[in-house]
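Q: Please design a sequence for this.
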């Protein structure tokens, strides 16, 4: 599994969690080419299993704690 912090195509507010519909902060690419999107909550909840099946993980949960410049 590879974790990428700065993807070439960042997740946007239009990307939604496949479990609950909240804004997605984690993109998981699977070996077959499919991808799953998760909010931070579901990414934590399913993190161990995702690490087992993921080819690539794009994690943007850092956006939740960044403070905007004033």
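A: Design:
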């Amino acid at each position: 599994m590879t974790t990428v912090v700065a993807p070439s195509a960042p997740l946007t507010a239009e990307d939604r969690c496949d479990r609950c519909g909240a804004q997605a902060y984690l993109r998981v690419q699977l070996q077959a080419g499919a991808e799953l999107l998760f909010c931070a909550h579901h990414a934590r909840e399913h993190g161990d299993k995702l690490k087992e099946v993921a080819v690539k993980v794009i994690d943007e949960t850092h956006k939740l704690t960044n403070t905007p410049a004033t």
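Q: Thanks. Anything notable?
A: The first strand starts at residue 2 and ends at 4. DSSP finds two helices and four strands in the chain.
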